[in-house]
Amino acid sequence: MHSSPVIVWFRNDLRIADNPALRAAAASGAPVVALYILDDAAPDLWRRGAASRWWLHHSLQSLSETLQNLGIQLVLRQGRAEFLIEELAVKIGATKIFWNRLYEPWAMERDSQIKIQLRHQNIDAQSFNASLLFEPSHLRNKQGEVFKVFTPFWRACLAAATPTSPLAAPKQLNSFSEIESDVLSHWNLTPRRPNWAKAFSASWDVGEAAAQNKLKLFLSKKIMSYKIDRDFMAKEGVSRLSPHLHFGEISPRQIWFMTQKKIPNSADAFLREIGWREFCYHLLVANPQMPSEPLDRKFSRFAWREDFEGLKAWQKGQTGYPIIDAAMRELWVTGYMHNRARMVAASFLVKHLLIPWQDGACWFWDTLVDADLANNSGGWQWVSGCGADAAPYFRVFNPVIQGEKFDPEGAYVSKYVPEVSKLPKRFIHRPWEAPQDVLQAADVTLGKTYPYPIVDHVFARQRALKAYENLRLENTKA
Ligand SMILES: Cc1cc2nc3c(=O)[nH]c(=O)nc-3n(C[C@H](O)[C@H](O)[C@H](O)COP(=O)(O)OP(=O)(O)OC[C@H]3O[C@@H](n4cnc5c(N)ncnc54)[C@H](O)[C@@H]3O)c2cc1C
Question: Is the CB of 153 within 6 Å of ligand 1?
Answer without folding.
Answer: no
